[in-house]
Amino acid sequence: MTPQHAHAIVIGGSIGGLLTARILSDYFKQVTLIERDQLPSTPDGRTGTPQGKHVHNLLTRGMKIIESLLPGFEDELVAHGANMANWGRDVKLLSLGGWLQSLETDLYSPVASRALVEWVIRQRVLAIPTVTIHENTDVRALLTDSLRETITGVRVKARGAGGEEQDLIADFVIDVSGRSSKSPEWLKDLGYEQPTETTVDPLVGYATCLYQKPATFKDGWRLLLMTAKAPDTCGGAIFEVENNVWMVSLGGYSGDYPPTDPDGFVEFARSLREPLLYNLIQDATPISDIVGYRRTLNVIHHYEKLSRFPQRFALLGDAVCGFNPIYGQGMTAAAMGVELLAKTFKAAKGDLHGLGRRFQVDLAKQNRALWLLSTGEDFRHKATIGDRPGRMTRLIQQYIDRVIHILPYHNDIAESFMQVMNMNQPASVLFKPSIVWRAFTYRRSPQTAVSLKAQTAPSH
Ligand SMILES: Cc1cc2nc3c(=O)[nH]c(=O)nc-3n(C[C@H](O)[C@H](O)[C@H](O)COP(=O)(O)OP(=O)(O)OC[C@H]3O[C@@H](n4cnc5c(N)ncnc54)[C@H](O)[C@@H]3O)c2cc1C
């Protein structure tokens, strides 16, 4: 593909920003990423993405999109130590209805630190000759034409003493700077209205500690997911990331934040509704401090509703819509946004006029389905703050609730559920008559409850 336009600027050099730069390199002769952090040359964390210290699940759909943008991505991750997990065999999942059985599925996810995922993507994207990155550089403002109708570039400032402000000119600017995006203020400074926000706050907190995986551990799974079942507030996960390390994250809803002191952390693990995770970390050696995180609000910035939207500008990723991270949607949602951006550029056939606004409208529709999935789960917890969904959504959620409760007894339904959870298939697959029938004939009898309690965790 021969690029038609001269220069694009991407604000933010994280997973969303890097993938965006990859797509824009098809349409622009030069793409410049601006990133406020000094980026590590190795797969290590950095200050601009503090969430990277916690478990990150790259869902199958996200992995497939990245593979299509950067062929060979999966193999490179594995070559650098990621474990590729099959969702039927290598993921041990405690659902609301109990432990899922081992099953056949073609769904895979890499089990790796977020730092490794980002690093592999960065190596690939920065190897594109027309993509460059300005590290240690903050974007401070958007530039416009004299009518303030078209974004013409950004004002940047290098970090550190003596860094001067500089204006960079571009034909297109896209903000992928995450939850701390300053676009609402920048647009206001230019005379635009600020986007309204919808928020749903489940008051979720994380705490994470790295452990050396015990040499005696012989179970086959690479990923342990134990969901919180309201009114219980506690959940937890173990990811076998690179270098035989267990990344153990605990999560609490409704302000029941997991402690970051060693005794409190282990005690919180003991409060999960099954003892497996607690028992496992008893035998493992911690190799890091415990870090906490609480910025987990679901938030949509409604750029699609602005009455005026500047030309040659767009936003995607967490800068537009951030999800409660417990359902592992963020990186995949960003990748889906990039895929949509590619479609929007292709359809525009070189005409950038109105492209940004069209993209924001379509992105809002795309994010809506993901939003309903994550906030629907959050509203199981009574302390969640935000507007409750309408009657129709509530009915759908009650139905899904029934489906989730029968997952341990029907592998075909569990497989369909995993397809939806991995965003590989639409939620409509859960409404097939054969599933609807079993969901509605299921009765949550005292016997079922007893059999669920008695159920032992199946070894995979
Ligand atoms: C605790 C936690 C756990 C999570 N778990 C998962 C998970 O399991 N699965 C999943 O898919 N997602 C998960 N997420 C979400 C995921 O981290 C993000 O959705 C993902 O990183 C994509 O974000 P992004 O690229 O839009 O923004 P970010 O990754 O936040 O990156 C924004 C970038 O912009 C830079 N930046 C910001 N402002 C400026 C500026 N003014 N100038 C220059 N640069 C700037 C920052 O330094 C940063 O590099 C989790 C999040 C949290 C908080």
How many domains? Answer: 3
Question: For the record, what is the CATH homologous superfamily label of the largest domain?
Answer: FAD/NAD(P)-binding domain
**Main β sheet profile:** 8 strands, mixed
In total, the number of strands is 21
Silhouette = globular
Mean pLDDT: 93
What fold name stands as the CATH topology of the largest domain? FAD/NAD(P)-binding domain
Strand content: 15-25%
Short summary:
By secondary structure, the protein is α+β, with helices and mostly antiparallel strands.
What's the helix and strand layout?
Elements: E1 5-11, H1 15-24, E2 28-34, H2 60-69, H3 73-79, E3 83-86, E4 91-95, E5 98-99, E6 108-111, H4 114-126, E7 131-134, E8 137-144, E9 151-158, E10 165-169, E11 172-175, H5 183-189, E12 197-200, E13 205-212, E14 223-226, E15 234-241, E16 245-252, H6 262-270, H7 276-282, E17 285-286, E18 291-293, E19 298-301, E20 313-315, E21 321-322, H8 330-348, H9 355-378, H10 391-406, H11 411-421, H12 433-441, H13 446-454
Parallel strand pairs: 1-2, 1-11, 2-7, 4-14, 11-20
Antiparallel strand pairs: 3-6, 4-5, 8-9, 9-10, 12-19, 13-16, 13-17, 13-18, 14-15, 15-16, 19-21
Helix pairs in contact: 1-4, 1-8, 2-8, 6-7, 8-9, 10-12
Bound molecules: flavin-adenine dinucleotide.
Flavin-adenine dinucleotide binds near residues 35, 317, 329 and 334.
What do you see in this structure?
By secondary structure, the chain is an alpha+beta fold. It folds into three domains: 5-56 and 113-198 and 298-374, FAD/NAD(P)-binding domain, CATH 3.50.50.60; 205-293, 2-Layer Sandwich (Alpha-Beta Plaits), CATH 3.30.70; 391-454, no CATH class. Helix content is 33%, strand content 23%. The protein contains 13 helices and 21 strands. The strands form five sheets. Strands 4, 5, 13, 14, 15, 16, 17 and 18 form an eight-stranded mixed β-sheet that branches. Helix 1 (15-24) packs parallel to helix 8 (330-348), helix 2 (60-69) crosses helix 8 (330-348) and helix 10 packs across helix 12 (433-441). It is globular. The model is unreliable at 446-460 (pLDDT under 50). Flavin-adenine dinucleotide (FAD) binds at residues 11-17, 34-37, 48-49, 51, 54-58, 138-139, 176-180, 182, 206, 293, 296, 317-319, 325, 328-332, 334.
